[in-house]
Amino acid sequence: MHCTNCALSVSKYLEKKGMQDVNVSFATEEVSFTAPAGADSKEVLSGINQMGYRVILPEDKPAAPKRYNTLTFKFIFCLIFTAPLLLHMWVNWSWLHHPWVQFGLTLPVYTAGMWHFGRSAVRSLINRMANMDVLVTLGATAAFAYSFVGTVIYGNPDYMFYETTAAIITLVFLGNMLEEKSVKQTTSAIADLAKMQVTTARLINTDHGHEHIHEVDNRTLRPGDCVLVNTGDKVPMDGTVYWGSGHANESMITGESTPVGKKEKDKVMGGTILEDGSIKVYITATGKDTVLSYIIELVKQAQADKPPMQKLADRISAIFVPLVLSIAVLTFLGWYFVGHATLATAMMRSVAVLVIACPCAMGLATPAAVMVGLGRAAKNGILIKGGHTLEMFKDIRQVVFDKTGTLTTGKLQLSEYRFFDMPEEAFKQVVYSLEKYSSHPIARSVAGLWKSAGEVPLQQVREHKGLGMRAKDKAGNEWQLGSFRMAEGLTADNGHHLYLIKNNQLAGWLDFNDEVRPEAAAVVAALKRSGIKPILLSGDTIHKCQELASRLGITEVYAEQSPQQKLQMVDTLMQQAPTAMVGDGINDAPALAKATIGISLSDATQVAMQSANVVLLNNNLGALPLALGLGKHTYLTIKQNLFWAFIYNVVAIPVAALGFLNPIVGAGIMGLSDVVLAVNSVRLRYKHVGY
Fold first, then answer.
1. Active site residue 402
2. Where are the domains of the chain?
């Protein structure tokens, strides 16, 4: 596809065929849709090919474009013939003024232009979705036909507008070429991530106890393979370290610049670089199942997702070309019959209207900004699921934080424990056996600490959100381990983190110290400076929540909340103002899904990450102000782009219609109008956007 109207044509065709979830992106040149039951996908894809596009399926290897088919080649080819035609306006060489010489110089340019723009224009008209190429084709053809008729009938230079034909086509090729290069800049983040996927791997084969190492393409690896990774190597695929140690640079995926220590049993991500050390890795995921593939796929989906502002621009683009054609006809009729201008003057003014109009600018305004915004976010370890999420950031006035694992590190240190009517070893075994089934940060800490104590075989193990764990042992004893709400009728002491209950009798309790995240205070302060209210919403005790809130400067606190109460509280807060929720556990998932924007940390449970609109991949709460800032500035860039796209057309078309614009100048300005948008969007990569 070579313009945004191409994307609209394909989109309309797919919708007409009954396809669902249609997403067509001009910038990434990607199309996705869901075929309803009974639909013939091959027939639909064949239809896209018949429209003049070439469908490349994910499993196909895209063919490198032939050199003569690139925009750069077409521009240079046309420029060679156009330059002498423009030169005759300043140089008084008689042979350059000869009508047939000008015809000979124009014909190759016109032929190349019609092969590119003309075919696209005809296809778009057949599909009843007139695109920008219709305007270029009509403008160039009108000038060429008028000049050719003048050459054949009159042979008079007064009828010659060959340079207008050639200049229109050449300058539009230049604009398209610059636009293509500029748009590639907006999608470079995805390309950078994709480059990380392909590398060589040192595959370890064991034969009679001896290890043999072979270099292979990482794409041939399968789960279960073992590979050696040395200093400076890329980790070929996701896996677990089973020998050695080192430090991995994960900045491209997580945004965290400090290398991360890796030792036995630690997970490593494909595409990251081992900066020092040597490790052997057991491959656990390959291809589309890796973290990097997941990130690339989510960013692609997000870039294809159209924010509400873009849908408005698309609707205007759909009626734009017929509207411009009508204005061009009225311009011609008005000047010729009312203004009593010559045929040549009336025609040139209507041609100027055709070539100055730029529907592509409206189609490109939003995708260009969204792609740069999402790309910069991905490079900084912020995964934003959807362009509409970026647009919603601008409205956020409240941010609700969970406590454990969000404002605190979740790396809990056991400070004290007590057990009643049972040996200490048995207490540890029961607690470990229950907590190993839970994904809560407290549970992970206990399970790691008391793993060596052994375990008790349990049956019917259940995790109750916001309460804790329940199970039975072989002897029929019923065990419960959870918050004070589980032990409420058994003790009045509510000052502990976990309570162990055996057959409805208190059997012990545990206390933990939870370290506050070092960046938490700075994040809360940054939000308050920008007028966003921070709120603490936790299932923990009121005492612990108020203590943390006072340390961080949070004034609004809701403690001892169950998952259902969290959901209701977020709902209530959203009625006051648009609200973001930051959380990490299973008990946060409903509230994350309900909030205007749900934000999850990457150490969070899979459920929480799937429920969230935004995932902070480096598990760093400090990225939150950048995420909010990127959302706000991306929306600002979209507004600037759309303003330029609209104001350009609103001003340029009347100026051309009133006769103040030469068609050649018009073609040049139109060619550069899209470049202005792309350059403005690329600024998002570098400007300061944090709160």
1. yes
2. 199-289, 380-407+516-631, 409-515
